[in-house]
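As agreed, record passed on underneath.
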Amino acid sequence: MSRFSRIGTFLLIAWLSFWGPFAFATSITVTSGGNQTVLVNKPSEDVTFKVVNDLGNPTTTGTKVNFKMVDALGQPVTGGLSTTVDTTDSKGLVSTRMKATSKKGTYTITATLANNGAISVSTIIQVTEALPTLPTLEGGSSVDGSGVFSSSTAIFSGGVAVNGGEFKSPAILKLSDTVEVKGIVKVESGHVGKVADLVVVAGAKALPPDDVVEGFYMLNEKGQVENWDVNIAALVAFKKGVTLSATQIVDMYKGKFIATGSLRIWFGYRLADGTVVFNAAKTLDVKINP
């Protein structure tokens, strides 16, 4: 019996040696097309995912992946994807894309291994109206929670549209005018897909000859104005928990201003570690006459 047992062991070792080590799919990541901003009635670019096995290599051809999409309320969007299932190619890649829709908002696409629902990854698609042409505010800077500044590759643009006109900065208007204040951030590439808070700050002065002192204010989540003591740590969020797209729109205000004066407006985003990226090179400027 001992001899037969040993022979069987040798046969098993030989069989495993012939077929090589077993490898199982253990992770899936987004390789391209994640966190897109798409115009209404336009399809997204392909969103491509990569499936990797426990040896760190792409899975072999034929691993099945399921896709689903939900809207901002978490409701499934039936028929919103080009395909809801794909199998990996020789590089371990699968892909889908969002079909054109007329409904603006944030949509989440999730890819899940068909044979293991615990292994999945998600990315967002932001559907928006056609982006307006905004005056450039040039490059940005970042400042950490302790007030230390550094450079940023983020690019900013922003302006004020008066009574439905084109966006301008500087903008000169009357107190009775209706305005829309909007900004766009070309987010630093390393920050795309991260969760951040949007922030909006303004420096305000009275009109001459009383323009001696500049006060600083910030917008909270309700769009209300709060005093700001220029302490980065005390800066409140204008919008919380935003997953940053490559092109991030910041809709700051619609309506009429409540007082005359001049404004310098800064806006941007705050990362989880407290770093704020904003339009340091050039402010969005407004003058409000009686």
Observations:
- The two ends are 104 Å apart (CA to CA).
- DSSP finds one helix and 21 strands in the chain.
